[in-house]
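Re: the 299-residue chain
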Amino acid sequence: MKIIRGEIPAPIINLPHLSGHEVAGEVVAVGTRVSGVKVGDIGLVYIYVSCHCCEYCLTGRQNICANVRRIGFELPGGFAEYLRIPAASLCKFKKGFAFQQMAILSDAVATAYHAIMSLARVSAGQDVMIVGAGGLGLHGIQIAKLCGARVIVVDKEPAALDLAKEMGADVLLDQRLNIPQEVNRLTNGYGVDAVLEFVGRNESLSWSLPSLKRGGTLVLVGYAPQQRFPLDTMAMHYNEWHVIGSRYCHKHELIQVIRLVEEGKIKPCVSKTFPFDDINEALAVLQNGKALGRIVLTY
């Protein structure tokens, strides 16, 4: 929606633009020099096309490549019947899994996985707060539960909180409450070990950061373009809070997510599907906030 609203300008998004960054499908043609991929393979797309030669790529952090181009952003995306990608961007999955379920793994699931596993490093017995029970948050709940954490979910929509409960959330909080106070009550005055911020707006950051325990970690996944968040430097100093930005995932993490879904350990949350000809209707539903989980276009 940030692209549709014009919040991501050039040089990232240049008009005319073809969006769509969560893509799954079947290989119908391969280049003459391609190996390891054949016609008939099915898979989804790792959307970051990195340079493989900058400092970040050479140290295993291709998600922050200095020269990265992204399918659906700088490069044409999946709102089309056919999509040309580098062979290395294909992540195969087993036949028998629906494309509309698997497509969302690339962002909605793998982005949450990277934030929770690699950055927050959630472990058994910890308290984790998920801010925002949308497409990413609903999968973040499942991943945090797989780690053995107690999961507290905060959202303003009752229907979103109900779905969060179905996904395994232990505690549900309406964001209109005094969240730090509620968290202190639930944690015997300590606060949570980690906050996964899938909203990233000043309104939620004002109470999500103070909900941390001393030495806790806030991972910023969601973001609002052009918003600036003032930090309480004294509180940061005394509590030794860690604030970390989180961007997409690594390819090996997406492959791990595919395996977890194939094993039935994570359930992709798709709320609605639309035929491609109804794309404008689908975008309207998304913009109006009427969808829980992801919306998927099908051919």
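The first strand starts at residue 24 and ends at 26.
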